[in-house]
Amino acid sequence: MLPTRQLEVAAAPAVLYSYCSRPHALPARPKYRAPPDAAEPEKEPLRYANLMYDRRVVRGNTYSLQVKPVITQPNPLEIQRQREARERALARKRAKEQMQPRTPEPVEGREHIHVQTELYLEEISDRTVEVDTECQTDAFLDRPPTPLFIPAKTGKDVATQIEEGELFDFDVEVKPILEVLIGKTVEQALLEVMEEEELAQLWAHQRAYAELRNAELAEVQRLEEQDRRYREEKERRKRQHMQMLQKQKETTEKIAARAFAQRYLADLIPSVFNNLRDSGFFYDPIERDIETEFLPWLMTEVEETLEKKVLGRTVLDSLIRTVVEKRLDAFSHKPLSDETEAPAEELRPADAAHQADSETDAADQLVAEKEGSDQPVADEHPSRHVSFQLEESDQAGTGDLETE
Amino acid sequence: MAHAHISGNFPPDIDPTKAPLAFGRRQQALMTLCDLVHDPENVYQVIEVGFLDNLKTLLLHHDSTVRQKTTQILYVMAMHNVGRQGLIQNGVISAITDLLDDPVDICRKNIHQIFEIMAKLPEGAVGILHAGLIPLLVFKLKTESDEIQELILDTLSNCLHVEASEALATSAITILKEKLTHSSAAIRSKAAWVLSEISTHPEGKSVVCEETIPVLVSLLEDTDPEVQASATGALMFATVKPAGKRALGAEAIPPLLKLVAEETSKARLSAIKTLTMLAELPEGRKTLLDHTDTFQQCLNDPCEAVKRAAKIAISVIKWKPF
């Protein structure tokens, strides 16, 4: 049984114990209050008091002294119990008073008076003699200044004197402090000034660079401008040149055309005149007159005459024909008349052939006679042909008649 | 609270009771921060911790001293590269813009100083351009005091360096023209510098040609070398176009030649370049052919760029069309 319980007890404290207030050594309560002129408490080393002389520690045996623990928050049960206890005590007291033997009441007509029987009379009054006496604890003492610790004199007396300025030379002492102060200030100032200088240098550098850049930019723009001008100029000149070439080409073509035309038309006039002359535009007016008027008139007259002749001949022919037909009819009754007509018919084609040959010979002769004018000759030819044909036919006809 | 936040950053040997108690704890902390921020490491720390947001809120504080100190802190931070980057990334530029109308002079001056330094960085200039601050700044030119005007002009010149077209939209050139005749030499030179930045842009060139060439030519004879240098720079860009060349005329050549002849003038490079531009025109060439010995002297200048420019000038002057 026991060992298991012990084990349980041993196993119980697995949960970490936590203090409400950690155990610490209590510092001693200061005997004197803090001096009033200090702004904040100086940090003195903490004095730990001896536990044995601490008034807060309970002395004596602890088993008999049953001091009730201070209950800050009494539970209602306790309060009620206390109230009851108080009431009971009161009741008891009242009861006790009742029970107390008192002096009997005074008889009729008598009065009890309190009398003092001591040796020395005391004046008793309602008002108790009151004497106001004030008492207070001693005011908190300021901590008395620590007394000078003058140890007992031991040893020999030796005196030494420190002259003015030996221990502490203001100038020497103040130098490092001053150096630091001024050094820091000057350093900060230098920093700022250097910053500004650095910046000023940077800006000056930048400005110089900006100037160079501007100069270069201007150069670039100038060259661009120049280039543009040159290009435009070139374009203009090219265009001009092209125009010039164009004009030149036109001019050469014109010249060539003119030359060609000139040459082509060089013998225009002679040929024109030749043609005109050939076509008879330059005519001798008298000749023309003869040709245009006289000869046509002549020709018409001749034609008329010939027509008349022809007419006569045709009439004659028809007469002859009718005569011959009649004769034929007359002779047809005889069979011999057939044979004579056949040779007559044959004779006629043979005569026609002869006539054709003789006509051509005659035409050649005519051409050889006439020179120059073709047309009138040509006109005359067919009429001559006709006339010759007729003449020949006439001759043939007459020949026929003559033969017959 | 800001104070609690800052005290975490303090190095342990700084006594926070340095400033007199009358300033109040917050201002006291700001003062100390202002001193500390001169050290770049602290700047880095401030940005790492993300303290810039707190500073931004402090910018809108009703107390002018607080605002002043905050702007001063931002200005000192902007002087370091780390600070600048941090300011750009945290969008402090837009936050500061509201303070441009602050009644206290010092606040405004600090703000303009911040802008000026930010503009020197390309990303900063881009940030300022994006925030659309150029018209506002140009407007402020009319109303602010001289010191602040100088700062605004510097900011403008650096921003326009990046992108010059913004200034053309406003009527900046008219205002700058007035400034060219200001009594202060610094303002004159800076205004001329801004004009030269504007005239790097082709449209800007034509506007500058129309309006400001006579004034710039008169500035060539100014007593202050800075003014001369800036005016020459402006003329250099304005004469790139033929219109500008003709507008400049012949009377500008003698002062430019004087500037070239001086050995130590800052305007030497720009003057040589301007004369090169003028020599593109036949009349200019004729006049300058007599003065080629001035350019020959320039060939002995220690600066490489000047030597090159002088060589180019001589070749342009001696150029013949055939």
TrEMBL record, chain A:
Top-level taxon of origin: Eukaryota
Localization per Swiss-Prot or TrEMBL: Cytoplasm, Cytoskeleton, Flagellum axoneme
InterPro entries referenced in this protein's UniProt entry, alphabetically: Radial_spoke_3
Main location: cytoplasm
One annotated Gene Ontology cellular component of this protein: cilium
Coiled-coil intervals: 213-251
Region (Disordered): 334-404
Keywords: Cell projection, Cilium, Coiled coil, Cytoplasm, Cytoskeleton, Flagellum, Phosphoprotein
Alphabetical list of Pfam families matching this protein: Radial_spoke_3
Composition skew (Basic and acidic residues), residue ranges: 345-357, 367-383
Family membership noted in the UniProt record: Belongs to the flagellar radial spoke RSP3 family.
Protein's recorded name: RSPH3 protein
From TrEMBL, chain B:
SMART domains assigned: ARM
Database matches in SUPFAM superfamilies: ARM repeat
InterPro entries in alphabetical order: ARM-like, ARM-type_fold, Armadillo, RSP14
Pfam families with a match to the protein in the record: HEAT_2
Protein name, entry field: Radial spoke head 14 homolog
Species of origin: Falco tinnunculus (Common kestrel)
